[in-house]
Amino acid sequence: MYTLRNIASLEEQLKIVHDAGIHAVETVGKQNTSAGDLKQLLDKYSIKVVSTHVQLSDLRSGFDDVVAFNKSIGNTTLVVPYLKKEERPTDAAGWIALGKELGGISKKVQAKGMTLAYHNHDFEIVDFNGKTGLELMFDGAGPKLKAELDLAWIARAGYDPAALLGKFRGRVFAVHAKDNAPPGQAKQEEGFAALGKGVLDWNAILPAAARAGVQWYIIEHDHPLDPAAVIKTGATYLNEHLPAGADR
Q1: What is the C-alpha separation between 100 and 137, in angstroms, rounded?
Q2: Contacts with 185 (C-beta within 8 Å, 6 or more apart), sequence order
Q3: Cα–Cα distance, 100 to 104 (Å, whole number)
Q4: Residue 112: closest CA among 79, 64, 145, 148
């Protein structure tokens, strides 16, 4: 749904998803609507919500409201999608401390019958004596915190997505299936590409994702010129390259 955020209406966004043959989405917060109206549209287009992006500040100060909204639409996975600059640790100890906080929140989330996950960009993937900030954060959090790995941002940080998937085996519930354009290309789209149209090695990544236990492949493009085409292209690519029964 993040890919489609600039489409005129929520109903048009969900129709694009439906028409691409996709029956599950990751929402962005409350999608600027009520839980009742969102659920009505989801039901109309036979779409379920498998996760949502929730800002860390909302989990800190509006926890009960976040839980109530998502239970109303049938969603049980909350994902911290991004850290503002002032929220980002600058050393190993800071990443471990943030992980401990997220571990505490994940216990509260689990007590509500839900799951907490974290979605990366590139700023977490900085080395501290052999471990990235992302790894240190998950070490601090403990096993209850799940991972949603953004494969294009991992590559932009200079790391191999397939290798990092291996490090998070067993705790990656989803990946953001997105691609990077060749260097210097797609400048209007900030260097991102439709899935399978860029430079990422999907022949290595998809088997690594399967071994890591990935349940969902979430099609995403941060700045698409044609969001509907990106969704359709991504769905086609995954249908052709994922084993039968895999979720996308």
Answers
A1: 8
A2: 191, 193
A3: 6
A4: 64
Q: Which amino acid is present at 17?
A: V
Task: Write down the pLDDT at residue 243.
Answer: 72
Query: Is 50 in contact with 26 (CB distance < 8 Å)?
Result: yes
Name the one residue in this structure whose structure tokens are 């999907």.
202
Single-letter residue type at 141: A
Radius of gyration of the chain (CA): 17
Using the CB atoms, write b or e for 71-95: b if 16+ within 10 Å.
eebebbbbbbbebeeeebbeebebb
DSSP for 118-185, written as a single string: EE--STT--EETTEEHHHHHHHHH-TTSEEEEEHHHHHHTT--HHHHHHHTTTTEEEEEE-EEPPTT-
Rounded Cα distance between 176 and 216, Å, is 9
Q: What is the DSSP letter of 247?
A: B
- 130 burial (CB, 10 Å; 0-12 / 13-18 / 19+) is exposed
Q: For 79-121, what is each residue's pLDDT tens digit?
A: 999 999 999 999 999 999 999 999 999 999 999 999 999 999 9
pLDDT at 97: 98
Alpha carbon distance, N-terminus to C-terminus of the chain: 13
Threshold 0.70, pTM exceeds: yes
